[in-house]
Amino acid sequence: MKYCFTLLVCLLTSVVYAQDSLKQAPFFDDFDNNQHGWYEFDEKEATGKIEKGQLFFSHHRTKGSWSLWNTVKIDETKNFSIEAKIRFLGGFDKHGYGIIWGANDLENKYFFIVTSLGFYTIRKVEAGKIKDIKSWAPNVYINQGNNENTFTIKKAGNSMLFYINQELLFVSDNYPFFGDKIGFTLAHNMKIAVDYLKVTQ
Which stretch is the leader sequence (predicted)? Predict the structure, then answer.
């Protein structure tokens, strides 16, 4: 229950930076440079920068969440895969970090997040209302602490498959996108490093 409450507070107080230039799947970014135009910023409340082949993303506030995304066009009528490798660098270990996809804005999006204690959740936000696709649950395949986790989301026919470190966690019905934004999210007092983002069609 504490995980759900924390996440709800985060969603209602989120701040976002977005990149508006449209890109098409297949898409790959290993962050060797900023060729795809991610918004880089250094503010009191949060920081996002590309450095040493990684996207470093941190949120310094004591409440809320922060999101950073890019725009990647995916043909939803076909199968696709979204994958990212993310390392937790520190902060409150009961809060979540992970991937946003199919987003139009903060009130219409999907997200797949984990905690450094080994829990995960998958959720839909529509018109600001949160709906569980998969409620918070522990899983042994989630690398805990300051270790990397590889997130993979696949559409296969009418199903969505969710993997962590190449291990299947959950299967759901397919959900239509709200928009073309894909990126990352983290709760307050957290820092992550993204090694790559890959979108295939």
Answer: 1-18
* Residue 47 confidence (pLDDT): 96
Question: What's the rounded mean pLDDT across residues 119-145?
Answer: 97
**Environment class of 31 (CB within 10 Å of its CB; exposed 0-12, middle 13-18, buried 19+):** buried
Domains of the chain from N-terminus onward: 2-200 (2.60.120.560)
Give the C-alpha separation, 114 to 98, whole Å: 6
Considering just the CA atoms, what is the radius of gyration of the chain in Å?
Answer: 15
| pTM attached to this predicted model | 0.89
Burial class (CB in 10 A: 0-12, 13-18, 19+), 1: exposed
DSSP 100-154: EEEEEETTEEEEEEE-TTSEEEEEEEETTEEEEEEEEEE-TTSPPSS-EEEEEEE
What phi, psi does 144 have (nearest 5°)? -90, 170
pLDDT confidence tier of residue 65, bands split at 50, 70 and 90: confident
